[in-house]
Amino acid sequence: xxxxxxxRHRNSDGSSKDWAVRSNPDGSITTRWGKTASCLPGVSNxxxxxxxxxxxxxxxxGYVLVGEVNIDVNGNVVFxxxxxxxxxxxxxxxxxxxxxxxPLVESLYWNIDCHAKxxxxxxxxxxxxxxxxxxxxxxxxxxxxxxxxxxxxxxxDATINADTFELSGQIKSAHGVLPWLFLLALKAKGFxxxxxxxxxxxxxxxxxxxxxxxxxxxxxxxxxxxxxEAAEALGLLKPRLNLASAMSDTDDxxx
Length: 255
Known about the structure:
By secondary structure, the chain is of the alpha+beta class. 27% of the residues lie in helices and 24% in strands. It is built from 7 helices and 9 strands. It has helices at residues 51-60, 118-138, 151-159, 178-188, 214-219, 228-233, 243-248; strands at residues 2-10, 16-23, 29-35, 42-46, 64-71, 77-78, 108-114, 165-171, 194-200. The strands form 2 sheets. Strands 4-3-2-1-5-6 form a 6-stranded antiparallel beta sheet, covered by helices on one side. The protein has a 3-stranded antiparallel beta sheet with strand order 8-7-9, covered by helices on one side. The chain is globular.
């Protein structure tokens, strides 16, 4: 495992989130993030920046250095002087115990690192507002205030002046499926210099292929057919051909 610098941000409600960074031999930077836990699922890589600079940015946002840690490829955090449990150290299961499978998805973590040129940042801001408009047009119900996802306003504020920025956060099942679809649509645009990462609690990166993310749809209590209208409007699915509608406009050719 490679040594990382681990930082922690404590929220006013008593919760906290962690962020870790390391420099790679090729000059690139790798960061990991997530709520304070033994595993940091979010991960991203970038080039053209210095570790010192991004650490200073995090410190200006209230992150405090915890210390140097080791993090394996799965995001498991190991502090100096501790050893991760090996299979031989794990307690043996009771033969009479009935195992209950854990949920496939427990939380989603997202991170957006915008270090693009100004022209691209302007385009990003325009697209953020366009996609939010699409979301509003396809949403047929309003979520409760306590369920509102704060990412909408974060993205609007971050892109209003077309500056570089880095944002991260969490999507809970109570937020509904729309924030996830919004981020996938933004990711699918592939803006150069804008890295968008969305990962599960177990650090599995999510693709923009909705058909391959059935477990995430289940996490939100929905399925592909139920979100098809929104997904088509956002460009994540190709519109289905309505044969009945198409044939209704065709003159009869019987004779």
